[in-house]
Amino acid sequence: MTGEEIVKQAWDSVERFGKCRKFGGAATVEIVRQGLREEGISTSARDVFVNGVPVEIDVIVPRRGAKPSLGEILYEPSEVAVALEIKKSGSYGEKSLKSTRDNFKLLAETGVRCAYVTLEERQTYLYKGTEANLGAPCFTLHWRQPESEPFRATEDWDRLVEFIRQQVAA
């Protein structure tokens, strides 16, 4: 699956279901998980936790041999290769970025590496997820444009897959 296919599949699923933010977020996470599986990358279930960190994580890429507990929703920090925050439509402003940055800091204190993934974002938006804003690698699969302009996929899906593979191998 390509980054463009992931974005279009998310758009299609949300369009079929209707405008429900919860569904859009859940569908986006599931579509990204599916894309990672197709790349041979294992993932956790949606909405999991790291022991000792009071933060819900969209998806974890576990290290080989990880054995999560509590129905496979609780990981030890040493079992996590990377924790992913996944958004369909990017950041919703400064407050959203601060919350994500604070969560990433809490996870980093336990040695967990984090990354931010968004399917789409406005390239000129002041509060978009960037490594400078969040203190973690950021991957944007598509730059949102006015309706009259063509779809502008990025190469970030390939970068994300490579980043995750490096974290798993570390």
Structure description:
This protein has 170 residues and is an alpha/beta fold. Strand 8 and strand 9 form a beta hairpin. It has a single domain, classed as Restriction Endonuclease. The chain is globular and about 45 Å long. The chain is 39% helix and 20% strand.
What does the secondary structure layout of this molecule look like, with pairings?
Elements: H1 3-17, H2 21-38, E1 48-50, E2 53-57, E3 59-62, E4 74-75, E5 80-87, H3 94-108, E6 114-118, H4 131-134, E7 138-140, E8 142-143, E9 152-153, H5 156-169
Parallel strand pairs: 1-4, 5-6, 6-7
Antiparallel strand pairs: 1-2, 3-5, 8-9
Task: Quote the CATH topology.
Answer: Restriction Endonuclease
Global geometry: globular
Q: What is the C-alpha radius of gyration, as a whole number of Å?
A: 15 Å
User: How many helices does DSSP assign?
Assistant: 5
- How far the N terminus sits from the C terminus, by CA atoms, comes to 25 Å
What count of domains describes the coordinates? 1
Indicate the proportion of strand residues: 15-25%
Query: What's the average pLDDT?
Result: 88
Low-confidence stretches: none
The oligomeric state is single chain
Kindly report the spatial arrangement of strands forming the biggest sheet. 3-5-6-7
Q: Sketch the topology as an H/E string, one letter per element.
A: HHEEEEEHEHEEEH
Overall strand count:
9
For the sheet with most strands, the description reads:
4 strands, mixed
